[in-house]
Amino acid sequence: MKFIFSLFVTVSIVFAQNNYFPNGTYLQDIPTPESVLGFNIGEQPARYHEALGYIKVLAEKSPRVQFFVQGETHEGRTLSYLVISSEENIKNLDKIKSNINKLSDPRSLSNPKQIVESSPAVAWMMYSIHGNEISGTDASLQLAYQLAAGTDEKTMNILNNLIVGIDPMENPDGRERYLHQVQQMSGKVINSDGQKIQNSGLWPSGRVNHYLFDLNRDWFILSQPESQARVKTQLEWHPQLVVDAHEMGSQSTFLFNPPREPINNNIPESVRKWWDIFADDQRNAFDENNFSYYSGEWYDDLYVGYGSAAPNYQGAIAILYEQAHTDGTVIKRHDGTNLTYHKAVKQQFTSSVSNLATAANNKNDLLNHYFSFRKKASNLNGAYYIKPSENVGRVSKLIEKLQLQGIEVSVSKTSFSSEVKDYSGKTKSQKFPKGTIVIPLNQPLGTYIHSIFEFDPRIKKEVLAKEQEKIEKQGYGIMYDVTGWSMLMAYGVDAYFSNTSESIKTEPYQGKKNTGKLTSTNNAVAYICEFSDDNSIKALQMMFDAKLKVRSAIEPFSIEGKNYDRGTLLLRVNENPSDIKTQLENIVTATGLNIIGLSTSHSQKGNDLGGGYFALLEEPKIALLTGTKINIYSKGTIWNLLDNEYGQRITILNYEWLGSTDLRKYNVLLLPSSWWGYSDILPKHVLTKLKTWVKGGGTLISIGSASAFLADSSSGFSQAKLKRQSLKKLSEYAEALEDESLWQTKIDEKAIWDGIIPKKKDAKKEEKADFKTIKKQDKRARLYYPKGAILKVNLNEEHWLNFGLGSSVSALVQSRNAFLSKKPVKTAGRFSDAADLRQSGLLWPQARERWANTAYLTQESMGNGQIIMFANEPIYRSYFYGTARLLLNAIYLGPGMGADAVNEW
C-alpha cells in the first residue's frame, strides 16, 4: 500500500514527531513509529502486521510497556493489547492488579482508602472496533509511543497515576478487509473527492468482522470471539476509564460525550457528572488546537451493548469518540477545507491524551467512584429467577455468557415462592422448584445485570414528546438504536424478576456436564430423542451427516411409561444401518442428550411408532443468498448460526448469478433481508425460476424485506399479503382470524344429539370507517413502527415449525411491514393482540393495532415445495435464540415436513 500513499506528502503536510505533542521530549532509545513502520503516523494507515509489529517492538524496548495476547479472530489474527505505566508501576503490576481487584468487590473491603491512595487508576483505550473507521488504530500507535518514550511533565503524570491499557485494533479482520479494498481501488494520483469508492469501501463493509457482525453491539451478547476476549480482559484489569474511538461521516467534525437523551435510567447521576468533567478538558484541548467538535446531537445512550456504554453500568466512566472519516488520504469537505488523515489521527490522539490527563489528575476520585458505585450495586434488592428448563443447552449457553462477564449465578437448593413480575409486567405470586437459576442483584455488577435483563426499560416523557414531534414533522424520530434488548427475553427462557431479596438457600452454578446417555436394549426396535433442547438440532444434523433415517413425531405419544411431545426424533432400527448404535453413541457424547432405545413400537397413548404420524425427514442441502444489496447483518447472523455455531455445510450464492445457478443441488434456499428490497435482486425471470424450483420440492425461507417482496402484490409469489396493500380486505382477514379458533368451540351435546339449537345473541353493529380513512390511518401508523421493540408472538403448537418451543416467543421487531395471512396459508406464529403485544421497548399506541394479530411466521405450499416467511430477523444480533429456533426448525424439518421430496430411483 505504501506506493499509493507515498504521494500523500503532496498535500503539504510536514510531519515531525512533535507535530502530535508540541514541545514534547523523548527517550532516544525508544523506537519512533517512523523508524519501525517506515512512515510517520498519519501519512498512511498502518496495516495489521505493521501495527502488531510496532507494539511488539515497544514492549521489547521499553520497561514501561508490556505486551499481551487476549484472543484470536475468526480469520486467525491475534487480538493483542499493551499495558503502559511508569517503570515503578510496571514492577509492581501484580500487586496493583490485586489491589484493584479488591476494590472491585466492596463486599470484602470495608475501607478503600489505603488502596485508593496508593494505587494508580486503570484507563482502557480502545480503537477502531469498526474496521473501516481507521484513524483510531494509528492514533493508538502514536499514543503508545508517547507513553513509552515521553519524558514531559504531562506524560509522566499520566504514567505515575494510571495503568493505561491500549487495545489498538479491536477488529483486525474488518480493518484488513477495508484497507485491502482501498489498496485495490486506488491509483497513483490522490483524489480528495468524498464520494470516491475508497472512502465508502465495497460490500461487505470493513465495519464488520468475519461473520459480518457489528462488534459495537455485542458487548453483553458476546456472540463473537473478539467481544469475548475483550470482556475477559477488562474483567481482569477492572478499568475506571474506558474510551472507545470511532469514526463517522466525512463531512462531520468530532463528537465526544456527554450523549443526548434518551439516556438509560440505570446510568446514575455520578456517571453523568464525570462525563462533564472529562468533556471540559477535552473541549479545552480541542480549542487550543483550533479543532471543531460537538457533543450529543445524534448520539444517545439508551442501549446497553456499546463499548462506550456497558462500562458505565459497572463502575467505570465510558467515553465515545467519533472522528470524521477519511480513507487514509484526504477528503475535501463541503466548506472547502481538506480533512487529512493526519488531522483525523491527531484529533483522536489529542482526545486520548486529554482524557488520560483528566483521569490522572483525578485518579483518587475515580477510584472512589468505582468503589462506591459497586458498593451501591452490592446492596441492591431484587433478583432474577429462571425456572428449570428442558432446553438445558440454551440455558447453559446463557449462563456461560453471563459468567464470562463476571456475573455471579446460583441455583436454589430448595423450592421457594416469591412475588415476581413476568414478561407481561404483571405481578404475581409464583412457586419456583429446586434447581431454579438465581441471579441476585446484590453483587458488584448488580446495576449491569439489571440493565441487560430489564424487561421493560422506560424512556422519559419529554424524550417521547421529542420523538413524536420529529415523527410528525419529518417522518422519522430520534431513536438511535433498539429500545428493547432484554437478554432473558431474547434467549426465550422462563424468567421472572423480584424486587425483593428472598432468603433462598442456594449454591454456585456449576453448569451441566456433558452427561448424555444412550439407553439401549439388545433387542431395540427404535431409538428416540426428545426435541425440546436446542442441542437436538445439532443431534439431528449429526444424524443426517451419518446418513441415518430420522423421523419426527407429528403428535404427542406415550411409550414404555414416558410421555413424548411433538417433534420427538425417531430412528427405526429396520430403516437404518447396522452400526446405528455406534453412531448414536457419538451423537450422545457430542450433544449431551439422552437417546433411548425401545423394545417395542407400541405406544400406550397416541400413535404407534410404525405408523404414519412420524414424518421422514430429509437432509437439508442449504443455499444462502448474498450480494451487494443484501443486509450484511441479516446474512451474517444466519451464516454465523449455521456455519459457526452448528458446523453446518452451506453454499453461499451471489444473487447476481442466480439466473444461471443450478438450484437442483439444494432443497433449502435462504433469502436474508435486503437494504433496498428485492425487486432488483429477484427480477421476473429469476422469480419464475424460483417458482419452478419451489414447485419441484424446494423450501424457500425469506426474512424481513425478502418476505415483504414475496408478499407484495407486484411479485404475486406468496398468498400472504402486506397489510398496507390489503386494507380493503381487513374484514376478511378478521373473520379468518376468528375461524382459526373455531376448533376450540365448546361442544354442545344437546345441539348434537337432541337438535336443540341455542339462540344466537344479536351481534352489535360496528361502524366501519371508509377506505380513505383506513388508508390514512395505516399510513400514519407506519410512521410509528416498532423502534426495535420486543413483541409477543403466539405460536400454533401443532405446527411443525414450532416443535420444541412452547406457546409463545419474544421477537425483536424493527420494521414498517406488517403481514396478513389466512387459509390456505398456515400461520405458525402470530403477533399477540394489542393488549398483550408489547413486551419491551417503544411501541406507540398508533402502531399497536396495526401490528396486533398480524403474521410473524407463515408456511404455505407451492406445488411439491413450500414458502416459509419471517416478518423480521429471527436471529437478531445472534442472541434471540427463541425465534432462532423457529429458523432452525424451518431449515432442518422443512424439507421433510413441509415439502414432498422425490424418492430415490
Structural commentary:
The protein has four domains: 360 residues, Aminopeptidase (3-Layer(aba) Sandwich), CATH 3.40.630; 129 residues, no CATH class; 99 residues, Alpha-Beta Plaits, CATH 3.30.70; 233 residues, Class I glutamine amidotransferase (GATase) domain (Rossmann fold, 3-Layer(aba) Sandwich). Helix content is 34%, strand content 19%. Strand 30, helix 22 and strand 31 form a beta-alpha-beta unit. Helix 7 crosses helix 13 and helix 19 runs antiparallel to helix 20. The longest helix is centred in the middle third of the chain and has 21 residues. The chain starts with a helix and ends in an 8-residue tail after the last helix. The N terminus is likely disordered.
Any key phrases for this structure?
905 residues, alpha/beta, Aminopeptidase, Alpha-Beta Plaits, 8-stranded mixed β-sheet, 19% strand, disordered N terminus
State the CATH architecture of the largest domain. Answer: 3-Layer(aba) Sandwich
Category by helix and strand content: alpha/beta
Strand content: 15-25%
Give the count of structural domains.
Answer: 4
Fraction of residues in helix: 25-40%
Mean pLDDT score: 94
What is the CATH H-level superfamily of the largest domain? Zn peptidases
N/C terminus separation: 57 Å
Low-pLDDT regions: 1-16
Would you count the extended β strands for me?
A: 39
Number of alpha- plus pi-helical segments: 28
Largest β-sheet summary: 10 strands, mixed
Give the overall silhouette.
globular
Radius of gyration: 30 Å
What is the CATH class of the largest domain? Alpha Beta
CATH topology of the largest domain: Aminopeptidase
